[in-house]
Amino acid sequence: MTATPDLRTPRFASPDLLRSAFRRHAAGVAVITARGALGPVGFTATSLTSVSAEPPLLSFGIGTGASSWPAIAETGHVGVHILGEHQHELAATFARSGADRFGPPTAWRVGPQGVPVLDGVLAWLVCRVVGRVPAGDHRIVLAEVELGDADGAGRPLLYHQGGFSALRD
């Protein structure tokens, strides 16, 4: 039997409450890439969302203090990569501050529109940025899919309770 939430002792809104609640929400893991002025940039995102089928639009969030933000703020195109359960280390590399994200062992190549495209992912998309919406200390980036490939083999990588995991049957 499931316990009823105790509505008499709610916590007031805070960054900690939001983080605690979303640790309980399993999310797919993606890496967003772009061509920056000093080379490729990228970051791990769990905020990827399908927005519209016609036209094909997606969104993701990025903090304005993130090292990738200056490039994302200026670029016309981004790469979106859906990671597989075999890519824990790749997700961790792109999430780690100060990491050499595009050095070995990361396998990638320059794709359409100069966007870095990662190898071995479940799906990749090259998207044209159509908007950047202020949202607190983040920006919600809206992007229209131009081309890609969704034929990678495997199951998706998930983020839950502060760590990467896989689907269970």
CATH fold call of the domain at 31-36 and 50-155: Pnp Oxidase, Chain A
Poorly predicted parts: none
SSE pattern, N- to C-terminal:
HEEEEEHEHEEEEEE
Query: Can you count the helices?
Result: 3
Helical fraction? 10-25%
Q: Beta-strand level of the residues, as a percent range?
A: 35-45%
Overall spatial form: globular
Strand order in the sheet with the most strands: 3-2-6-9-10-5-4
Whole-number mean pLDDT: 94
Number of strands: 12
CATH architecture of the domain at 31-36 and 50-155: Roll
What does this structure look like?
The protein is mostly beta strands. The chain has a domain of 112 residues: Electron Transport, Fmn-binding Protein, Chain A (Pnp Oxidase, Chain A, Roll), CATH 2.30.110.10. It is built from 3 helices and 12 strands, in the order H-E-E-E-E-E-H-E-H-E-E-E-E-E-E. The strands form 3 sheets. Strands 3-2-6-9-10-5-4 form a 7-stranded antiparallel sheet. Strand 2 and strand 3 form a beta hairpin. It is globular, with a radius of gyration of 17 Å. The mean pLDDT is 94.
